[in-house]
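User
New here, explain this?
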Amino acid sequence: MFRTVVAVLWLAMLSYGSSVPVRHHEGLVHGFLTLRSLDGTLLADGDLIQNVRGDKVTSRLVFHFKDGSLSDEVAVFSQRGTFHLLSDHVVQKGPAFTHPLDMRINGATGDVEVRYTEDGAEKSAHDRVKATDGLANGILLTLLKNLAPDTSEAKLSYVVATPKPRLVTLLVSRNGKEPFRTGGTERSAAHFRIKIDLGGMTGLLASVFGKEPADQNVWILEGEAPAFVKSESQMTPNGPMWRIELTSPSWGK
């Protein structure tokens, strides 16, 4: 059932110190999504809303949880030759999130501001990350859709809030292809496995004490018009694994 990548020895390994090259330009999008636990329990309904003006794209990924929680991320990026994050704003609040969060990233300067709640008190932290080129925050799915088919591995930069901002490396690898079905049509999606590399002594201690972040998984339909199919990932550090999938409208009688 699984089609694995053969001839691995000749596949390229890309380390992106700069932005990912644009192979497919982003356009106007409104996708309907569901967020579920891995056992299939529906947690939230979501929307992916994307608008384009010139070479600037504004992408909003929002989830409204059944328990009243909210996850809302708005990323602005350019797509002139390469993808470059201009800004990213993430808001997470409600009982689904142990630590409510408000994080803003300035892609031009590398400035990151995080507001969070800890022990009932509101706190804030500010930092400036060095790697502003190739930041994947808010545009990870877009970057994965634009990796060349012969790319076996890639490294991307990503800012996480722990709750203070921290720059980590995403180690992206292909894990073959997996079949899925739409209606009566059989298709296959490229499976990307993403490991979060904390680096340095922090990464070593996390490995020793078993607190390494879980691997994330994303499935992309490749071809002339690549599309997101499914992901299994954590929305917060040490949070539960949740599944995001496309969904279709249902109609009443």
In short: The chain has two helices and 15 strands.
